[in-house]
Write a structure and sequence with these properties.
It is a single chain. This protein is α/β, with parallel strands linked by helices. The protein has a single domain, classed as P-loop containing nucleotide triphosphate hydrolases (Rossmann fold). 50% of the residues lie in helices and 15% in strands. The chain has nine helices and eight strands. A hairpin with a 2-residue loop joins β3 and β4. The two termini are 17 Å apart. The model has no long low-confidence stretch (mean pLDDT 91).
Length: 230
């Protein structure tokens, strides 16, 4: 019998899911699987090797050359710690192109799933992304959809990018709105627009602190696991 279980945390860009998932993992002594970094790693590799992200065949050809592992806040790409490099605005602007290629997702999802399932045999896994509970770990025991108001999320992105870009807050707001539309209604539709229908517990952290958000998720975990163990 497995000693652990999987907690899936999904949500739109800048909803705080990465920070919250990391904090929750620390509280629960859990394995933190941030799957978005896999797509950022592929994007970074392409940019570094001058591979056009619009050339789908070129991107497809280099996938076997990419070996990515993620644990906590560290991402290793072909033996190199690229964690900080994956946060650059150039990667942020282009990662959606890579993530929207079905063949990239088909390549990475089994890797992500295998890591999560294996680790969950021994300890809690917290998987963070946009389609963790719908496509990667549909049988996750706890499913959280973390969100916040559009303006709040745009401000968060603006602050994160402020040292690297001259974009205005209004530009970042429009980019965030477009990102939401693409994530929910694009070809892959990996971010659901009605999360409750998929078994998520929705938490809006617009006016919550990090600690308050984590405490709310902990209560959800207790409720879900308590109900299932009756």
């Amino acid at each position: 019998m497995n000693k652990g279980y999987i907690i899936a945390i999904d949500g739109p860009v800048a909803s705080g899911k990465g920070t919250i998932a990391k904090g929750l993992a620390s509280r629960l002594n859990a394995f933190f699987l941030t799957t978005g970094m896999f797509y950022r790693a592929v994007t970074y590799y392409c940019l570094q090797h001058n591979i056009s992200l619009e050339d789908s065949e070129a991107v497809k050809r280099i996938l076997p050359d990419i070996k990515v592992s993620v644990s906590g806040d560290t991402t290793i790409l072909n033996g190199e710690n690229v964690t900080d490099k994956l946060k650059h605005s150039e990667v942020d602007k282009n990662v959606t192109v890579v993530a929207n290629y079905p063949f990239v997702r088909e390549y990475l999802i089994p890797i992500q799933r295998a890591i999560g399932v294996k680790v969950a045999q021994e300890k809690i896994v917290i998987a963070e992304g946009r389609d963790m509970a719908t496509k990667v770990f549909p049988n996750a025991e706890v499913k959280i959809y973390l969100t916040a108001e559009l303006e709040t999320r745009a401000k968060r992105r603006y602050i994160q990018q402020n040292l690297e870009t001259n974009e205005s807050l209004q530009q970042v707001l429009e980019e965030t709105r477009e990102r939401d539309e693409n994530d929910m209604f694009g070809e892959l539709q990996y971010l659901v627009s009605e999360p409750e229908r998929y078994g998520y517990t929705v938490i809006d952290d617009t006016n919550l602190t990090e600690e308050q958000t984590i405490e709310r998720i902990l209560r959800v975990i207790d409720e879900v696991r308590g109900y299932k163990n009756l």
